[in-house]
Amino acid sequence: MKSLGNISFLTYGCKVNQFDTDRIASSLSYKFNIIDDAESSDFCIVNTCTVTNKADNHILSDIRKLKKNNPKCKILVTGCMAQTNPEYLEKISEVDYIVDNANKYLIPKVLTEPVIKKKIISNIFDINKFNDFTIDKREKRSRAFLSIQDGCDFRCTFCIIPFARGKSRSMETSSVIDKINEFSNLGYNEVVLSGIHLSSYGNDIDSNLLELLKLIETYCQITNIRLSSIDPADTSKELIDFFSNSKKICPSFHISLQSGSSEILKSMKRRYRLEKFNDILDLIKNNNDSSCIGTDVIAGFPGETEYLFNKSYEYLECAQLDYFHVFPYSDRRGTKASSRKDKVDNDLKKERSKALRGLSEKKKMKFYKRFIGKKLTGISEKNSHARTRNYIDVNIKNNPNIKNGEVVELVIDKVEDGRAFGIYV
Ligand code: SF4
Fold first, then answer.
1. Is 161 a pocket residue for ligand 1 (Cβ < 6 Å)?
2. What spacing in Å lies between the alpha carbon of 201 and ligand 1's midpoint?
3. By CB distance 3.0 to 4.6 Å, which of 101, 261, 412, 413 could disulfide with 312?
4. Is residue 1 situated within a structural domain?
């Protein structure tokens, strides 16, 4: 078939968005020539994130820059910003098409059939079923990402995601198993299971995450399964015990905490307190002290006084956590937290974020150093890197022609300037 032109993609935000872009690209690959350089393309799909104001501003600046340098390029904006704020995008002259999350599957039609409207928006909460798909076989990466759940039924007071992604819905378990096996057959050794709220997996289809993982353990040949992020509120002892007995689940867990202060957790409407979180960390580390545990922390949530921040910092310093992703609090339209009057000053948010990032770096290095001289297993990545099963990013110094995505054994011999160095053995 004759190509309808060059198309490029700009993707922002989480792994689920990256995964959605791959699906859209796959559906367009028969009609368009996919290229990397947006400034030489006839069409560009901008798959947006709207988790912070900073993300919004960054995306809008990229859109303007792209149109300025390539005025003929038709820009289609999709993703979470298109879902939550289409009215705003409509006013931006550089944007040619707007298609929300609910209608992403219509993107090929929008670009190829002139009768289709330029703006396709609907109510994301009308969607009750997971939108399944076929695997994109075009490009081989170090590991495969499989998004098995979408949406979230909770309402943390700072979070806009439920309004961008709708109700929680899950891929059928049989489809998850088939896809993991398909990835194995394509030569992948590791699959990352992701979702908007992965811990809700199965709630809508009479299943749950533990049940799914048990099936994967029995029916899949893949070497490694990694979980993107789980919610402490839904992390049971049974699930943790399963992790430690599993041959496939990598001992690296991202468990979203958000604050080291129980008062702040309460005002965020998180569904757990620090005692529960501590129990989870203890259980994981007691079962396997080589496990890496990371978390997300929001700095400067409304009402976070100096006293509460210090309490949170002290908690994080002592907790059995090995790194954090730190986000300065950002107002999101329509969320409960955005209407609070007790906001934290921007400079203070930056200062607190910096302090937390420094603490995270120290903890990460301490974790890395524990493994100097030990033989570890991992997956090779591009540019002479490997990622161990317990999530250590290792710069490889010898390079015996190992391809991307292979299972490798390595020894870390040095941790310096925030990086681990090692050799394949
Ligand atoms: S659990 Fe809370 S933070 Fe996570 S997606 Fe749902 S509302 Fe957002």
1. yes
2. 14
3. 261
4. no
Residue type, 387: R
* CATH number of the CATH domain containing 341: 3.30.750.200
ipTM: 0.93
Residue 24 to residue 26: CA distance in whole angstroms? 5
**Residues 6+ positions from 145 with CB-CB distance below 8 Å:** 15, 18, 19, 22, 191, 192, 194
Ligand 1 pocket residue status of 162, Cβ below 6 Å: yes
- Please, what is the Cα angle at 319 between 323 and 254, to 5 degrees? 40
The secondary structure of residue 402, as a DSSP letter, is P
Of the residues 16, 49, 197, which should be mutated to test ligand 1's pocket, given the most ligand atoms within 8 Å of the CB? 197
Give the ligand 1 atom nearest the CA of 152.
6
Domain hosting residue 83, numbered range:
6-122
> Does 238 fall in a domain?
yes
* 133 lies in the same domain as 116: no
CATH code at position 42: 3.40.50.2300
The residue from 343, 367, 391 where one domain ends is: 367
pLDDT of 137 over the 80 cut = no
